[in-house]
Amino acid sequence: MYTIEVLTFWVFEGARVADVVLRYRANGVAWTDATGQVDANLTPDPNVVVWHGLVDAATLTALEADADVVVLNSEEVV
User: Fold this and answer.
1) Tell me: the pLDDT tens digits for 1-58?
2) 2-8 and 10-12 as β-strands: parallel, antiparallel, unpaired?
3) Which of 32, 49, 68, 75 is 20 to 30 Å apart from 22, CA to CA?
């Protein structure tokens, strides 16, 4: 498993949700908002947000190849 920080954007599907959270859901993958704020308190302009994740190697590889996500850092959890 890897801890990561990614730069992603909000999508609006009835509520504001981070794109990476919608598109990268798998067993063992967990996401948290890096700001610790209630989503409603975060401005969507500019439409960008940092999220922390705990992902497996396959998900990390997919995120690194995704043009809509910027992986800011990653570290293997031993």
Assistant:
1) 999 999 999 888 787 888 999 999 887 899 988 887 776 777 777 888 899 999 999 9
2) unpaired
3) 75
- The pTM of this model reads 0.84
**Would you state the structure tokens that stand for residue 46, as one six-digit string?**
């500019």
Instruction: Give the DSSP per-residue string, 51-76.
Output: EEEEE-HHHHHHHHH-TT-EEEEEEE
In single-letter form, the type of residue at position 65 comes to A
Cβ contacts of 4 within 8 Å, gap of 6 or more: 52, 53, 54, 55, 60, 63, 71, 72, 73, 74, 75
